[in-house]
Every structure is written in C-alpha cells, then in structure tokens.
Amino acid sequence: MNSFPDKLLHKLNEREQRNSFRRLTTPTNLVDFSSNDYLGFAKNEEIFQQTHDFLVERNCKVNGATGSRLLSGNHSIYTETEEYIAHFHQAEAALIFNSGYDANVGFFSSVPQRNDIILYDELSHASIRDGIQMSLAKSFKFKHNNVVDLENLLNKHTQTTDNRQPTTDNEQRTTVYIITESVFSMDGDSPDLEKMVHLAEKFNAYLVVDEAHALGVFGKNGAGLVQQLNLHDKVFARIITFGKAVGCHGAALLGSVQLKNYLVNFARSFIYTTGLSPHSVATIFVAYQHLSKSLQERERLFQNITYFKSCLPSTVFSLPSSSSIHSVIIPGNERVKTIAQQLQQNGFDVKPILSPTVPEGQERLRFCLHSYNSQKEIFTVLDLLSTFVF
C-alpha cells in the first residue's frame, strides 16, 4: 500500500506548526459553556421517554429509514412532523433534511441558477459558502451585517442585470438572492433583518435567512427571530436546524410549496441520501411540542445572558451579542488554547475557536449560555477568565 500522500502530510504538518490542529475529544463532566444545547433539550428525559411512547403508539418498531425518501425512506412520521413544523413557523411548507449542512448545500447548489446573483454576508457559515461554491450562479460577499455595503452591491449588480423581464423566449430574468443568518454562530450577533427585507423588496431580490442559532431562543415559543419581527411572509426561505436548541438532529427548509417541490426534485443532498430514522424524526416532533411550553427555560436563558454580560470583566474584549453566543477575543491560537485549558482544568468546558475557522487575530473563547447554567457558574468562570487574561 502506498504511503500517505506528501501533499496531504504537508498540510497536516502545517496545521500542527500553526497550533491549529483539530482533534476529536470525548464529552466531559465539566460545567457546560460550549454546547449548543441552549434549553437543555438534548438531556431532557421527558422528551426521550415521550419519543419512545410516540413510536410505540404508532406501532413503529423500525430502526432505520431503509432508503432515500424518494425510494423507501419516507415514513409517515415525516409527513406529520413537516406539517407540524410548517404550522409552527407560519410557513406554507417544510422539508426535513438530514442536517443543517445538507440543507444549506442542497439549497444553494440547486436553487440559484446560471447567471443569477448571490449576495452573502462575509461571515456566513461554511455550509452556506460550500453550497454557493457548488452553484452555477455568480456570488459576491458583503461586509458583515453592513446593509450599506449590501445596497451598494445591489445597485451595482441590478444595474447590470436590471432585473428585467425576458425580452425573448430564450432569455430568462436574472434572479438576485440575499443570504444572511439571524444569529451568527461565531459572533452571536444579528443583522438588521427589517432593512434587509426592505432592500429585497426594493431590488426585487429573494431573501434567505439561516435561523440555526435563533430557533428555540427568539420569538414566540422560540419560533425564531424572523417570526419575532413578523417578517416570515417576506422571506423567501428559512433554514432551521435541530441540533442546537431543539436538542436532536436534522434540519428543515421553510418556504412555499413550490420551493419544497423544487428541492425534492433538484436538491442532491436530499435526493441521494438515506432518510432519517423514524426515531430521529419522532424526536424532532416531540421536541417541537416541548418548544410550545418552554417559556421557563427561555426566561432562564435570557436571565443568564443578561447576568453574563453584567459580569464580563473590563479586562477582556467581547463582541456585542444578545443571543446565547458570546465571544471573548484573545488573539493567537497558542494563547487562546492555553487560557481555554486553564478554564477546563478548573472545571469549565469553554472551547477556543482557532484560525483558520476565524481570521487570524480574531481567535476567541466562545461561551455558549444555557437555561441550566447557574449564576454562580457564570460568575466563577468569568472571574477565573479575568485572572488568566493578564
């Protein structure tokens, strides 16, 4: 057998030298300030038991989907869950994907067409950017959360395309897509969605919003920031994922029935993969029912967010955020890893975010807050942080 390719070995060695080598670790018993389980649903025993009861009631004793959803894998629980999710999010339709990555890659690789224009926030998630790279459309990034820069790009590219109607049978109108997230995963901040909706309407563009880190946190019953702002009827598509506050696995795209039909026919990450098991989909269904009665958990989460911000030491530079995600900038992979290890040695699971995941000089500690964190835990971890930074 041939040895490992030299080019790949060089890339691994380069990561080691830059102190940015990634390794898999197993879960710990440390105080959780790193997971996306914002409401504690992933550890909720009631959801676990009710999912089992749900499957038993439907006499569903199947371990796997057995095939793609277009072949043998589209069990009835999918239909029931997608209808529930669509109603919950005030959308015409919902289509479940195996993960948020699959949903974004499937959408962006299939929906924007050749000669279309994609304008995306420069800090968009890797899955969005990977899907855009697979698209035949032209793409341009705008400065993070900067609606002025976005409008400049819209002016520039709609002047070229003019968003005009076809003048011949063979000519198709260029479509412009605006892509953003309602809560960004590394900074924890949010764009001005109302202004973005206004720009989309002004330039006849289609707004797409990834709500991965807003679901369960913002809006009535945790429905997300788009619904909190009452913009759901003005957004072309929303991507929601279930591995964060919903505490399980999978994702869904929300939009029109036509969009759902299109994705079923053209989204390759949907078509060419085995579907989620009945148990996975049933867990989504049961967890969504718990969202409707999760007021106490969300209230405790926001109390912890407020308390965390009030306790932040003046010796650290933190990015402004009103979400569950709070980042403390500590430049340098080696330095931020060292401080994270010190916090972990003192019992707190705080993870460093290294370059190249974030730009060099923007390395950080990423604190994820939860409904189950205590104020004592928050105070102690930040007090320790202040002693380690200087």
UniProtKB/TrEMBL annotation:
- Start and end residues of each Aminotransferase class I/classII large domain: 29-371
Gene3D superfamilies the record matches? Aspartate Aminotransferase, domain 1, Type I PLP-dependent aspartate aminotransferase-like (Major domain)
GO MF terms listed in the record are: pyridoxal phosphate binding; transferase activity
One Pfam match: Aminotran_1_2
Q: Which cofactors?
A: pyridoxal 5'-phosphate
Give the top-rank taxon of the lineage listed in the UniProt record for this protein. Bacteria
Alphabetically sorted, this entry's keywords are: Pyridoxal phosphate, Transferase
Q: Which biological processes are named by the entry's GO terms?
A: biotin biosynthetic process
Coiled-coil regions, chain positions: none
SUPFAM superfamilies given in the database record: PLP-dependent transferases
* InterPro entries linked: Aminotransferase_I/II_large, AON_synthase_class-II, PyrdxlP-dep_Trfase, PyrdxlP-dep_Trfase_major, PyrdxlP-dep_Trfase_small
Family, per the entry?
Belongs to the class-II pyridoxal-phosphate-dependent aminotransferase family. BioF subfamily.
Q: What is this protein called?
A: 8-amino-7-oxononanoate synthase
